């Protein structure tokens, strides 16, 4: 934001806005604006000093020797204005007592007090500013004005000092506000980027879970029918044709699902134009597919109106039943699998997939358990819970409860 316009901002503000420079501890270089402001302050101090020289010549209370010393002190004070950025506190403290005895250093003293209010905390400004205000009566007692009453001169000088301090504190507060807004904008950008990355990560995790749930079911069906053809080469032609048709259909469906998921990944956002997501009403079709693959599946569907189940809850229930059937097909082939779905609005939806222990030894399947982990996360996101594990009789059970308001 500051690129190309750095000359417009004070170096102190750029130092606070640039974290690299601040961490390195380097003094900020003067910008073009700093040179203009410093030269203007120096010129203002000189103008005030020259005006004071003319007033000294007309003041009968000031001897000629003291006037010369006053002018020398004023010239040194004006030259010291160039050091106000490096040592604001030291310069203000040094010029405070000099301004009592030197008329020509009054402008430099006010500029030093203003710089102190801009660059240092209030506790320093309060001490130095308070001393300046307290010395005003002493100054006009030592250097009385010929044309202005004492009380009026004291009040005017005191108000001028307070105004300079207030102006400096206002500038400091404005700079701090600008730094605060810049930090807030930087934090907001960082948080927005992190939220976008988190949303993208969650979306990809959801797509990965969907890919696992869909493809695992399709590929296990394909594996079952391919295994039947392998171990029964003497099967009747009609049965062989039916198994080949199921293999072709399962491969086509798996390829279609994979193509849709890859399309979503390439687009970078959810695709709502694809095929509709399965709901609880599609559970009968899922069980029919499993039966066609040779599984023994019993469906106990006690939900009177499956279409009334919310789409997110119904989709989660479908995926749980699908994963349970897929796991039973892989780890307990040939067993009787029972799928039970019960529930009503207000009490929630309960899904239970149970299978007894398989007969004989089943070889381990690599990568097992990932689908159940994803289902547990999916159920938790919907506000429900999922439990799974072996039963006392040696079988396996997946049981989930999902909220249905």
Automatic annotation (TrEMBL):
CDD domains: HATPase_UhpB-NarQ-NarX-like. The keyword Repeat does not apply. It is an enzyme of class 2 (transferase). Pfam families: HisKA_3. The keyword Secreted does not apply. PANTHER family: NITRATE/NITRITE SENSOR PROTEIN NARX-RELATED, NITRATE_NITRITE SENSOR PROTEIN NARQ. This is histidine kinase. It comes from Streptomyces iakyrus.
């Amino acid at each position: 934001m500051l690129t190309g316009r750095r000359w417009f901002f004070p170096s102190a503000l750029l130092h606070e806005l640039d974290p690299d420079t601040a961490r390195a501890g380097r003094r900020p270089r003067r910008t073009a604006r700093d040179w203009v402001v410093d030269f203007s302050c120096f010129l203002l101090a000189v103008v005030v000093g020259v005006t004071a020289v003319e007033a000294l010549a007309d003041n009968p209370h000031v001897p000629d020797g003291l006037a010369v010393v006053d002018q020398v002190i004023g010239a040194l004070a004006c030259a010291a204005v160039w050091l106000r950025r490096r040592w604001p506190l030291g310069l203000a403290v040094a010029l405070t007592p000099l301004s009592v005895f030197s008329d020509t250093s009054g402008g430099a003293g006010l500029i030093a007090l203003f710089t102190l209010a801009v660059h240092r905390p209030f506790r320093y400004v309060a001490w130095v500013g308070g001393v300046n205000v307290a010395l005003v009566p002493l100054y006009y007692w030592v250097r009385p004005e010929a044309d202005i009453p004492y009380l009026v001169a004291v009040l005017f000088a005191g108000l001028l000092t307070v105004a300079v301090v207030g102006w400096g504190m206002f500038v400091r507060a404005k700079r701090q506000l600008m730094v605060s807004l810049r930090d807030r904008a930087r934090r907001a950008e960082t948080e927005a980027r992190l939220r976008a990355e988190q949303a993208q990560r969650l979306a990809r995790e959801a797509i990965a879970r969907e890919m696992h749930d869909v493809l695992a079911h399709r590929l296990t069906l394909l594996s079952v029918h391919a295994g039947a053809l392998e171990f029964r080469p003497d099967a009747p032609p009609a049965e062989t044709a039916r198994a080949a048709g199921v293999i072709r259909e399962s491969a086509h469906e798996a390829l279609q699902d994979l193509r849709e998921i890859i399309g979503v990944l390439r687009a970078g956002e959810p695709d709502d134009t694809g095929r509709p997501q399965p709901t609880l009403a599609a559970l009968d079709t899922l069980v029919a597919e499993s039966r066609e693959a040779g599984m023994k599946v019993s469906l106990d569907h006690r939900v009177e109106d499956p279409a009334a189940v919310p789409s997110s809850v119904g989709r989660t229930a479908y995926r749980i039943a699908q994963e349970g059937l897929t796991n039973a097909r892989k780890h307990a082939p040939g067993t009787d699998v029972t799928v039970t779905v019960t529930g009503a609005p207000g009490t929630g939806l309960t899904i239970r997939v149970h299978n007894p222990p398989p007969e004989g030894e089943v070889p381990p399947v690599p990568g097992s358990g990932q689908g159940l982990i994803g289902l547990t996360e999916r159920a938790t996101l919907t506000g429900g819970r999922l439990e799974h594990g072996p039963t006392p009789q040696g079988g396996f059970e997946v049981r989930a409860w999902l909220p249905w308001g």
